Each structure stands twice: as C-alpha cells, then as structure tokens.
Amino acid sequence: MMVAEMKIKNLCLLITLMAIVAAPAWSLDVDKGQEDVNTKASAETEKSSDEKKDKKPKKEDKFFHLTDGTVHTVTGGVLRDISILCKNGKIVEMGQGVTAPDNAETLDASGYHIYPGLVSADSGGIFGSSVENSTNVFSLQMTLALAGGITTAATGNTAAKLTFGSTEGLVVKRDLFKSLRYSSIEPNAKYELRAKFEKVRQYLREYEAYQEDKKRDDEAEEPDKEWLKGKYQTCLTLIKKNAVAKFTANSAHELLDVCDLVSTFDIDAVIVGAVEGWTVASELARANVSVVVTPRKRARSDERLNRANGSSIENAAILHEHGVPLAIVPGNTSVTLWGLAGRDLLHLNMEAAFAVRGGLSEVAALRAITIDSARLLGVEHRVGSIEIGKDADFAITDGDILHYMTHTRWTVVDGEVVYDKFKDTLFDHIRPDGELESPPPDDYWPRRLGDDQ
Amino acid sequence: MIRLHKIKFSAYVVTLAWLGCGLTMTSALAGDDGESKFVVIKAAHVITISGDNHSPGIIVIEDGRISAVGSDLEYPPSAKVIHAPRETVTPGLVLPRSRYGLPSYSRNGVHGDQKAASEIYLDERDFEALLKAGFTSVGFVPDGSGIVGLASAYRTAGDDDLRLLKEDAYLYAIPNWQAQGKANLRGAFKKAQEEIDKVDKARKEWDEKRKKEAEEAKKKAGEDSPKDEPVEDEGDEGKERPGVSRRGLNGEEEKNEAKPAEPDEGAEKKEEAFVPPKIDPKYQPLVDMIQHKEGARMLVRLGRASDLLHMFDALEGFDDLDVDVEFKSRRATSDLLHVIDGIGEKEMRILLSPVVNYVPYTNFRYNAVNQLAKAGAKIAFVPVRDNELEFGRMTQRMAELVRAGLPEDKSLRAVTLEPAMLMGIDKEVGSIEKDKAADLVFWDSDPLDPHGKVTRVMILGEMVWKAEESQ
Fold first, then answer.
1. Is the ipTM of this complex over 0.90?
2. Which CATH code, of 3.30.9.10, 1.10.287.1080, 2.30.40.10, 2.60.120.10, is assigned to A61-118+133-145+387-453?
3. Domain residue spans of chain A
4. pLDDT at position B330, please?
5. Strand blocks (E) in B319-363
6. B361 vs A contacts (CB less than 8 Å)
7. d(Cα B240, Cα B263) in Å, to the nearest integer?
8. What is the DSSP string of A366-412?
9. Which residues of A408-445 are buried (b: 16+ CB within 10 A; e: fewer)?
10. What residue in A sits closest to B312 (Cα-Cα)?
11. What is the pLDDT of residues B366-407, one digit of tens each?
12. Cα B316 → chain centroid
C-alpha cells in the first residue's frame, strides 16, 4: 500500500508540493511504519475536506502475540507449536513462524494448551443487573470464573464478556431469547400460549390473502391487528424466526409437548434441562431444537412408568448421537463456594468431562462448552473457537482442559491477560509441578506491606 | 465571605473612619482604639504544611489573619503574646465531607439547586466534638442519593457571622452504582449540555435577527457609516461569547469558555433585548462545570474500584471536568488496589479514610494510601465514621499509615490543605501562610504522636476551645 502511495505521490509531487508544505500538524500520526510524513500528507490532501475535519487522533494498534502453544482451535483440529497474533482484540494471524511487531505484548505459551475462552450458556452473579452499567469488573466472582477458563457467559437475556478491569466491550449480544412457559404443570398457560400461536398464524394467513386480494381489488380490507401486542407480538417474531424461544422442560412428555409446539409453528427453540432427553432424542432432533444440559443432574426414575425415564449418564452422548446441538452448563450456574464443590460455574470444564464419562466424545464435549454454546447464544461469529477474525479470547491451561488436574494458567479476553494464576492469590499456591518455592513475579501486585519501604 | 474581605481591607487602611462606623463585627476583631490587633504565638514547633516547618516557631497574626510565620520575627510590642513552649501548632484540620449531627433523609435525582447550608442552624449546633479533635473547618453535604446537592463549608467555632466559609463548596454525587447510578449520572450531564445548547441556540437566533435588523437599518439609513461599526462589533461579540458548545472544533473556542461571564454582563448593558432562556437551577452547577467556571467542582462517591471506570464512562465526552472522587474505604474488602495506578496517572484527588487495607479475601495487608501517594494521587482524608470517636481517632489512624510507610508530610497535608482544596477554600484555610485565616490547632506533642492531644484551638486569631487540663 505504502509503496503504491509513494509512487502516486511522486507523480503528483510537483503539483501538491505546496499543499504538502502547508499540511497542518494533524498529519503527524504515530501509526506504525508511517515515517514519511510527507507521503501521508499528500495522501490526505487527496481526501475530501470533510474527512479531515472528522479526523481524531487514532489509538495506537495493540498487538498481542501468543507463541508456541498447542492450539485447540475447536473448529479446525489441534495444531502444535503455533503462534497466534492478535490485533486490537481480534485474531489476525496464526501459524508457525508468525512474526509480531516490536510493540506487541508477547506471552510464551510453550508447553501450554491454548483453548478458545469457554462460553457458558447461563450464569449468575458475575455481572450486574444491568451489564454495562453496574457490573463490578474487579469482582471475585469474575476472577473465579476467569480462573475456570470462562470468557463469555449469558446473564439474564444478555451475552456478555468477562472483561476484567475494563468496562469496554462487556455486552456481546442483547435479547438472546424469548422465554416461554409451556408445561403440563400449568395447563391453562399452556393452552393459552398455543391458542395465541394459532391466532397469530391465522392472522398471517389472512394477511397474505389480503395482499393477494389487494392486487385485484383496491378496496380489500386489511385484517385487524389492534390486538397484535405483547405476547402476541412475541409469537409473531418467533413465527417469523426473528427470535429464539426458550423453554424449560425436563420430563419426556414435557419435551415432546415442546417439540410438538415448535414443529407445528416452525419456530427456533432452545430447551433448558432435558434430563429425560435421552429417551426422546430422535424427536428432539426432528424438531430441530437445541438443548442446554447438565450431565451431572440427577433425577430418580419412576419404576411405575412403563417407559424409560429418569436421568442418565449417557444423556449428552445420546442427544449428540442423534444430532441435537448441545450446550453444557453446571448444576449451579453461579460461582458458589457452598454445598457441593465442583458443581458450580468454576467447573464448567468438569461438567463437560462428566459427559465424556457418559460416552460423549471429547471433541463434542469441548464443543459443547465453546462453539456450540456460542452458537446456541447466537454469538458464534465472535467467540467459541480460535479462528482468524474472531475475538482474541483464550483459556491457556497447563493440560487437557477436560482433565481434573488441569488449571488455567492465563485467561485472555480481547487480547488482554485478565487472569494470571501466579499473580492472583486464589490458586497461586496450587502447583502440581512442585515449583511452590518459586518467587513471586517482579510485577507482583499488590505490593504487600513492607515490600516497598 | 464579603465581610471577611472587609476585615482584610481594614487591616491595610487603618483609619478612624472605621471607629465612626461602629460596626460590632470590627470591634470584635480590631482593638477598640481602631488599630490592628496583633496576636503572636510562640510555639515549640510550627508545621505550616505549605512551607518550611519552624522550631521554635513564631506566628504573627494581625486582625485574625496570619501576617508572618518564621523562627525569628519582629512584632509590635502591643501584640498579645501566646506562649506555647511545649506545644506544636498546625493549621486547623479540615473535614471535607460530613453530616455530623444532621438527620438523615432519602432523596433521589438531580438537586444541584440544593445546598447543605439550608439545613444548618448554627445556633443549635454543637461542634465541640470536632474542635476537640482539631477540626476548624467542616464541609456539610446534603443527604440522599443521586446528585444530592452542594456542600457548604463552615468554621467549627467563632462569630456566627464569620462561620460560613463557602456555601457552594462542591457538588456532591452519590450515584447508586449497583443500579441505575451510571445511567443517571450520564443523563444528568447530558441534560446540562442540552441546557447549554438551548441558550446557545437562542443566542444565535437572536444574533442573526439583530444582524438582519442592522442590515435593514443600514439600507434604510443609506450612508450612516459611523453607526455601522458598533453594530458589527456587537455582532462579533455575540458570536464568541462564553457558553458556546464545549465541543469546539479548536482550542480557541474553549479558551473563551474558560473566561468568567464578564462579556455577558457587558452585553447585557449594551443590548437589553437578549434574555437567555432560563437554565434549570437543578442543573446549574453541572452547567458551570461543563463550562469550566471557576470553582465549579464535583465530588463523586464510589463504592468499589469498578465504579471509577463506570464514572469515566458516564462522563465520557465531557473533558477536563473538575471531579474528585470519594472512595468508601473498608479495611478488609476495599478493592481499591485495582485502580490505584490509574488514579495516580490521572493525578486525581481522592477522599478516603486513613486505614491500612487488606487485599480482599486474603490476609495480606497493603497500604493503599501510600501506594496512591506514590502513584501521584492527591489524597484527602475523611474519618471512618461520622462520630465523635472517629473524629478523635483520625490522627491515630494517620499515624498508623505513617508507620506503614506513608510520608508524614503527605499524611498531614491530607487532613488540612488537600481537603481545603477539595472544597475550594484553600485561599482561606488549610495551611499556615501569609494572609490566610488564623485557624490553628495547638497539640501537646507531635500531631501524629499516638498520645498527642489537642490542647487549644484558635479560629480567626481568637482562642475558641481549650482542653480542660491546660486551663
């Protein structure tokens, strides 16, 4: 680019020389490789005057270079000794022998595994009630979740990033789902919802007919749409596939009811729970729904029923086998330190590992907490795998992420190291490699009392 | 304030005319013979805060104001000498944010038109607890949440007429960061900007109208050249008037804004026709801040480190606002450490309690205040709680911080000059300097000595409080 510009410049140099000399100071940008100020100035003079006025001092590009790790791309297999170059929070280059500019922040990941940051399809307590307005970006919960390798999580109806220490770029996507109740426990609500869908569908048919009529008859009457508000509006957006419905259903008949509704009105849907999903997996697959499962969720089987029921360790594996898109979440989607340790959001990877115990392939288990989870939330274009153009979110671990001894060594969000095991006080002391006596890093913060006197 | 200036004036122009006036106020301060009343303090140590310390130290006070400070000074023989051979004298302590003794109430929204002064009835207040701890100035704030109103600074003793230091010391904001605080803060400043734009628009329209009229007049008048020039001048003046939008394309326009409202007054004299639309008084202090009016400043209360970032977000686009922050410091759960370097880099002023902190959820102690000071932040202290016990513990806690590494001078500055600057009363109090008010505290040893106590308190050259033992 620059060479070409220089050539063009040489041609029109004589003409524009005066303009170059008169070029004001705003052309003195500090961009990388912009030594020839005159070249830039001449290029600028060719631009329209409006652009000049709008010109603001550009932020310097920020590079992050992750070197020599074992990269689990999720969507493109496992690559060994690969370097990843990120620019302004996005992955721009990866491969062997990738060179980074001098000002890049480099992290040597040799001997470590690089995974895309994990995506949790649900969470609680990490973000504030209003994600961008009241999130505590220095909270212990956020640090703990990052220590669990999570970089993106759904909270309420919003998908958000765990941008520790920064309020920028918190929100990834709003209005994820339209939550609906369709359960045999509430027969009235169930009946009403179906009736609403029916009415909206009828309206759409009438509207189509009206549009046909209008071509022939100018005085055709538009169907009444005064009532098309609130819940009806929700139904309309769902039938038009402008939104995704979210149901909670666990038992086989509940799941089948939802499948029936979903396939009758052809809507996109996500089912949370699906404990007995393994008994109706083919129906779920045919209805084209995605499910959010918790492999360690237990439900006692009722032996009086003359069908397979209750929870199964194979649930995730069977659903996956039938082609049902899966996301895995732990039993408690907050960061909790009470009750049964290891069944909260700190152990998202362990939950996926438990599905592997039930027969799910490791690849599918990893997908269920990364790309498939991201797809379920509709944010797969930004997170969930290591691909060029995607966000630079990584969980860098000291082993296989589905192994119980594995700890996250660093977590990176938008090209920034937001969690460093050795610098945080949480898991610093746990060093299976036995290097417990190693001194704290030079830039250890906080500087403890007495360190600085 | 006005009266104080009068006193100052009288110090220079000592005439018998003053006697003739017979003002009760002056007779209280100046001698009955109409001459300046001199008071001289001879102390073991004088800690000036702003300059060198003197041991032994002499402070010469003329009509309630400090006229000289040093180790060896001459003073008129008529001066009343206060001997304090074992005492240390420091400037009176300044408590910048308090609701001591005031009833609590809840109120939400933006209340830039409310002043704490409206809640203070000096005759019914007892400031003994503050005097005992060495505080000579106190800033009261309104209660509630949101932008609660203007803080008012008072002296803790003295003649009632001279007690009020500043009615609009600073605008105090307590956003509810856990809920809509950020959005509300942003909304308040946007509204203030709208108010400015409203005035600008009206002014522009008026200018254009006037120009047209002038042109028409010109046409009608034909060759009346001498009349033209002043008309054009007026038009130009209208254009570069302050209060033009803060988003100037170049710096020049902003410089114009920084000027006080003189041209406005001038314009009003010349051109009676333009009446600017009224600015909502609730937003007036915010408007003043955006326009960089002298003394327009805000103190924002933060609960957590994260709130600082949210505050920056909320105030984005409004450059160079004079904003200080208050951090609600808790011993064990303050996550201030995350933003210490950021506050230091910006050289912000931070108001917090003098406590040594723990890293949250650990037993690692760290001296947040010292780290802030090292990073370059300006520190002002406020007692941990608004009660007598904590007022008295203030210096003790400061001593603890000093033991943990905080330089002594910074510690004392944080309870005198810095809070005075925060309230914009640093020209009057906060250090022992020439022309400042003689609001002084006498200590029986070093102020940071854990056993040190206040022995006497002087306000405007008058002894207003004495410890029982020393009487």
1. no
2. 2.30.40.10
3. 2-54, 61-118+133-145+387-453, 183-237
4. 75
5. 323-327, 349-352, 357-358
6. 140, 425
7. 9
8. HHHTTHHHHHHHT-TTTSSS--TTSB--EEEESS-TTSTT--EEEEE
9. bbbbbbbbbbbbbbeeeeeeeeeeeeeeeeeeeeeeee
10. A167
11. 889 999 999 999 999 999 999 999 999 999 999 999 999 999
12. 24
Run of H or E residues at A49: helix A49-54
Mean per-residue pLDDT of chain B: 83
CATH of B37-92+431-471, one of 1.10.357.10, 2.30.40.10, 1.10.10.10, 3.40.50.2300: 2.30.40.10
The low-confidence residues of chain A, meaning pLDDT below 50, are 1-53, 453
Residues 6+ apart with CB under 8 A from B46: B53, B54, B55, B56, B57, B58, B59, B69, B88, B89, B90, B432
Nearest in space to A351 (alpha carbons), one of A340, A343, A359, A341: A343
Chain A partners within 8 Å of B366 (Cβ):
446-449
Q: What is the C-alpha separation between B4 and B1, in angstroms, rounded?
A: 5
Say how far apart CA A43 and CA A107 lie, in whole Å.
Answer: 36
Residue of B nearest to A142 (CA): B306
What single-letter amino acid sits at A27? Answer: S
Taking CA atoms, B347 is separated from A27, B310, B324, B342, B461, in Å, by 30, 18, 10, 9, 35
Where are chain B's structural domains? 37-92+431-471, 93-185+285-429
pTM value? 0.80
Number of H helices, E strands in chain A: 14, 17
Whole-angstrom Cα distance, residue A73 to residue A366?
10
Cα–Cα distances (Å) from B281 to A231, B191, B195, B299, in that order, read: 43, 12, 10, 19
Provide the β-strand partners of residue A179.
A246
Cα(B10)–Cα(B30) distance, integer angstroms: 9
Q: Cβ separation of B309 and A139 shorter than 8 Å?
A: no
Identify any residues that bridge with B151 across adjacent strands, giving them in sequence order: B170
Q: List pLDDT tens digits, range B8-21.
A: 444 444 443 444 44
Q: Do B366 and A447 touch (CB under 8 A)?
A: yes
- What CATH number should be reported for the domain whose range is B93-185+285-429? 3.20.20.140
Rounded CA-CA distance A37/A60 in Å is: 17
Instruction: Indicate the residue of A133, A137, A448 with minimum beta-carbon distance to B180.
Output: A133
Residues of A in contact with B335 (CB under 8 A): 138-139
Residues 119-158 of B with CB under 8 A from A: none
User: Between chains, do A446 and B366 touch, taking CB under 8 Å as contact?
Assistant: yes
Residue of chain A with shortest Cα separation from B356: A449
